[in-house]
Q: What sequence folds into this?
């Protein structure tokens, strides 16, 4: 943990301090994050993240929208796991309405979630290569991701922000080609995954850049509230899919991936192995989609009973919590999102101070930050 | 020694023609002008070829097509890029040191031009056969770091400054092992003149004749050469994901193009030296007693051999760039001072021993 005295105000910097603004426009902040860092030569001695460059007040906008509409604003938070965000919001409304959703909808939701997770991890892998100075992984990662996005496009009509969930299930049934295309994707991806390992995992330079870099202890992981692969890389078991199964995750066989080293390489391995687990989940479900309705019957205008509702899902980056206060009208009284990236970012100072500038970039790559999710 | 392709008759013919028409002073002046024009032309052509080649090699590595719109098979893409850079505004930051900011690209460019001088392209086709050619190139190529340092400092940008400092540390370190691996071949050949070194490889290239020490020297030379070029995986000075462009962050238009061009010509120079010292320069490939094969090889023009070997090495360096992640700055210096430098020192002693015992072929 960082002592209170250590957290100093960078406005009081001395003349001889070398202060560098990394961002808001910087190739490796993946968006508009601004880090004010203090340097001693190449060594980073202090980091101060500045947020708010892409704040769109999504929470407030949700409070102005109906229970059917606010779901789709959340696609724009963590746009790489847009489906999971929507799912969490749909789940909180369903909880309020005490709606039981059809089995078919549940299975399709899980399938889409896992495909989203795969696409997200592929993009992360591609950008990690780019951040560490290797250009070719970018194209390898995007090659496979493109196939998934085409599947989304066919079924949902859009590639990134699919807006597929509605309270009570999914908006429409899957495309007739869905199963065939997913099978084709799985076949291709399983063939390509060893290539990922050849290109980066086994590379000596890559291992030197990540092994032992950015150590995060399990205690700090918990106190910073980190979740997702970032926490699981430090050996903290926190997979919501295991701890509080939702939408039928209790019926599928998969392992929670844990690594204990706590460094960048461990976080990398967690994500790589999570891709294999996602493939396993999709393989179990793709041929067993139950017949039946894909949407429960709901009223035209939804009204939640008075009270507080909370739901959480495991997005590609960690735990997303949706907290909703209802006053009985057709609009939420208060919305609050507990976004995984905000908590993960708070660990950055702990893991990157004392390292070089190159380590800072590696650390940010391995935290897999999506900035719109931090600012909302 | 007689060679099928000997260009010295051509050069001496031109020299004599000038001598017959004007005084010796004017002759030298005119020859300098001609050589200068040739060098600049070569410079530009190489730049265009390498830009196109790099993009095609990258595309090949990344299962893309690469440039294929401008001209046949995209061959005019580099020309279009150059025109674009010429038309762009040459922007100078307000707080920059104007004089040094504008000077830096010219220093970097002229240094890479100077290094072309002692390269033998074929028998008798050499700008200046200086008797300390290897030493000259080592000396001249170190000057480019001054240009980069000036560029980084004069931009008045913190990223540029960091990039320039990194580049300084890197080039100064890697000069050592590059120099030591070159010395190994100087010891084998017994001469510092590049044309003599090529001549000494008439019976076989040093990488074959010099046993394992020559191979070690060659590998170290390629690594150190890549590092001196500031190319990935050693592109610490640019490091676009860390320093957003390093020392040339603030440069635009033609001044940026000069850095760009200088990088590619430096790449050519390093690979040409590697080809000359280790792979026999313009000497054709000969195998011991296969006189029929050797005779056929003699008919391939020497500059084809020279450029073939050079482009092979260029391709290897491009291959590095599109495969490896970047090293960290401390790992970069560790690699040099803890591994490459001691290895090349020991290697040099072994080479000296081999030469004294006359174990090489």
A:
């Amino acid at each position: 943990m960082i002592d209170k005295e250590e957290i100093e105000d960078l406005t009081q910097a001395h003349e001889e301090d070398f202060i560098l603004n990394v961002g808001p426009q910087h190739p490796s902040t993946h968006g508009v994050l601004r880090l004010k860092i203090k340097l001693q030569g190449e060594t980073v001695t202090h980091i101060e993240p500045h947020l708010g460059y892409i704040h769109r007040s999504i929470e407030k906008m949700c409070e102005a929208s109906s229970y059917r509409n606010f779901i789709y604003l959340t696609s724009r938070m963590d746009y790489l796991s847009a489906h999971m965000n929507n799912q969490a919001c749909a789940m909180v409304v369903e909880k309020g309405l005490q709606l039981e959703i059809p089995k078919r909808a549940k299975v399709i939701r899980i399938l889409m979630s896992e495909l989203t997770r795969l696409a997200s991890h592929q993009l992360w892998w591609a950008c990690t290569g780019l951040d560490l100075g290797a250009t070719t992984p970018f194209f390898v990662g995007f090659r496979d991701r493109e196939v998934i996005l085409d599947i989304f496009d066919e079924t949902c009509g859009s590639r990134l922000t699919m807006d597929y969930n509605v309270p009570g299930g999914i908006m429409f049934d899957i495309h007739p080609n869905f199963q065939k295309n997913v099978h084709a994707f799985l076949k291709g991806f399983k063939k390509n995954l060893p290539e990922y390992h050849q290109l980066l995992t086994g590379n000596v330079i890559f291992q030197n850049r990540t092994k032992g870099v950015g150590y995060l202890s399990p205690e700090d992981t918990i106190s910073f509230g980190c979740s997702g692969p970032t926490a699981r890389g430090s050996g903290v078991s926190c997979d919501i899919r295991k701890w509080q199964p939702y939408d039928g995750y209790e019926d599928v066989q998969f392992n929670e991936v844990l690594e204990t080293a706590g460094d960048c390489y461990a976080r990398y391995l967690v994500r790589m192995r999570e891709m294999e687990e996602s493939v396993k989940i999709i393989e179990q479900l793709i041929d067993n989609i139950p017949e039946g309705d894909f949407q429960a019957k709901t009223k035209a205008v939804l009204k939640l009973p008075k009270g507080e509702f909370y739901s959480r899902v495991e997005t590609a980056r960690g735990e997303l919590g949706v907290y909703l206060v209802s006053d009985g009208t057709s609009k939420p009284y208060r919305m609050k999102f507990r976004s995984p990236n905000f908590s993960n970012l708070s660990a950055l100072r702990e893991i990157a101070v004392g390292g070089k500038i190159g380590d800072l970039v590696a650390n940010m790559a391995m935290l897999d930050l999506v900035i719109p999710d931090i600012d909302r | 020694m007689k060679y099928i392709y000997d260009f010295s008759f051509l050069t001496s013919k031109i020299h004599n023609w000038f001598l017959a028409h004007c005084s010796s002073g004017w002759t030298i002046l005119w020859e300098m002008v001609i050589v200068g024009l040739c060098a600049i032309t070569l410079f530009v052509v190489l730049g265009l070829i390498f830009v196109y080649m790099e993009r095609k090699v990258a595309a090949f590595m990344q299962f893309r097509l690469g440039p294929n719109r401008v001209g046949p098979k995209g061959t005019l893409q580099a020309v279009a890029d150059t025109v674009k850079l010429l038309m762009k505004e040459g922007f100078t930051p307000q707080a920059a040191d104007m004089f040094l900011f504008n000077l830096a690209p010219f220093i970097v460019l002229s240094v890479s031009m100077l290094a072309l001088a002692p390269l033998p392209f074929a028998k008798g086709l050499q700008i200046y056969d200086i008797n300390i050619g290897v030493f000259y190139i080592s000396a001249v190529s170190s000057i480019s770091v001054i240009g980069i340092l000036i560029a980084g400092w004069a931009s008045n940008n913190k990223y540029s400054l960091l990039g320039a400092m990194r580049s300084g540390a890197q080039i100064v370190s890697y000069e050592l092992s590059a120099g030591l691996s070159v010395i190994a071949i100087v010891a084998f050949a017994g001469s510092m003149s590049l044309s003599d070194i090529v001549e000494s490889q008439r019976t076989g290239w040093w990488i074959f004749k010099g046993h394992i020490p020559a191979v070690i020297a060659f590998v170290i030379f390629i690594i150190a050469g890549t590092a001196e070029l500031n190319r990935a995986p050693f592109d610490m000075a640019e490091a676009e994901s860390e320093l957003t462009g390093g020392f040339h962050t603030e440069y635009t238009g033609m001044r940026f193009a000069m850095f760009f061009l200088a990088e590619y010509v430096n790449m050519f120079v390093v690979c040409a030296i590697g080809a000359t010292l280790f792979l026999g320069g313009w000497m054709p490939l000969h195998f011991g007693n296969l006189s029929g094969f050797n005779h056929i090889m003699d008919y391939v023009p020497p500059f084809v051999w020279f450029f073939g070997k050079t482009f092979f090495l260029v391709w290897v360096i491009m291959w590095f760039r599109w495969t490896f992640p970047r090293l960290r700055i401390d790992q970069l210096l560790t690699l040099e001072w803890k591994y490459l430098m001691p290895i090349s020192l020991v290697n040099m002693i072994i080479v000296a021993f081999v030469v004294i015992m006359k174990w090489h072929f």
User: Anything to note?
Assistant: Chain A is about 45% helix and 10% strand. Chain A touches chain B at residues 18, 20, 26-28, 39, 42, 129-136, 138-140, 143, 199-200, 203, 205-206, 208-209, 356-361 (CB under 8 Å).
